[in-house]
Amino acid sequence: MRDDYLIAKAKEDYPWMEEVYKETSGFIHFSNKHIYNATKKNAGAPQTLNTYIGKYDHDVNLQSKIEAYACMIEISNCILNLIFGWVDTKRIGG
């Protein structure tokens, strides 16, 4: 299954998910999101950029982190709803 198919199916029940996918998929598929979020102007040195690579998010503000966590939790709940629906269908002989 491809991303475009999965997001099309998901947005049938959760229309907001398409926008979340567009905003977050850049972190999964190496893209500008990685570069822009890991690169900052160096205030002390004109025409200089600082960039970092690693497992820590040095300059991500708390609000952005909370929003990302909330999205992950909500998407997990959506997946669980689908699983519970499938289990119920199988339970009644579908």
Annotate the secondary structure layout.
Layout: H1 3-13, H2 17-28, H3 32-37, E1 39-41, E2 49-51, H4 62-91
Antiparallel strand pairs: 1-2
Structural notes for this entry:
The protein is mostly helical and 94 residues long. It is 63% helix and 6% strand. The chain has four helices and two strands. It has helices spanning 3-13, 17-28, 32-37, 62-91; strands at 39-41, 49-51. It has a two-stranded antiparallel ribbon with strand order 1-2. A hairpin with a 7-residue loop joins strand 1 (39-41) and strand 2 (49-51). It is elongated, with a radius of gyration of 19 Å. The two termini are 23 Å apart. The relative contact order is 0.09. The mean pLDDT is 83.
Question: Which characteristics define this entry?
Answer:
single chain; 94 residues; mainly alpha; two-stranded antiparallel sheet; 4 helices; 2 strands; elongated
